[in-house]
Amino acid sequence: MENRTTRRGSFKKLGMGIAALFGVGTVSAMETKSKIKKEVVGEIVTDQDIPLFSGAVKHGNTLYIAGKGAHTEPFEIKAHTEIVLQELQKELERNGSSMEQVLKVNVYLADLNDYKGMNEVFRGRFGKNPPVRTTVATYGGVPGKSLVEMDCIAAVD
Questions:
Q1: What digits encode the pLDDT tens for the residues 97-128?
Q2: Which of 44, 150, 43, 36 minimizes the C-alpha distance to 99?
Q3: What are the CB-based long-range contacts (under 8 Å, 24+) for 48-53?
């Protein structure tokens, strides 16, 4: 009987020791995460001199890029899609990322009938492993004169 109690006590002590190790590791990881700060890396858009939104924000190794549109002629979906993708690529590269590191893209179309034309330009632009994507047609159109707007989230090396 005495041997059983000792064995049980040993297992209990071992379990408490392992729990303490994991507890210390968790606290340490939480302290590291809290040191990561949001960094505005793009232009801050204002409305009446009050900050409205940032063009791009980094948080750790993740880059968030606000919607890019093409507010210029020609007003044709393939041309606008090309312009928007080029703008996204510039912003990604300026911040140490690339089209291949994009994790998620949101596409906003002024007209759902432009879906096929947008896809013709979009396909293949993100390498062999494309990001996840959501595409919606916006009620009332995309802000400004753009036929398409895109935002994205990407990994940064």
A1: 999 999 999 999 999 999 999 999 999 999 99
A2: 150
A3: none
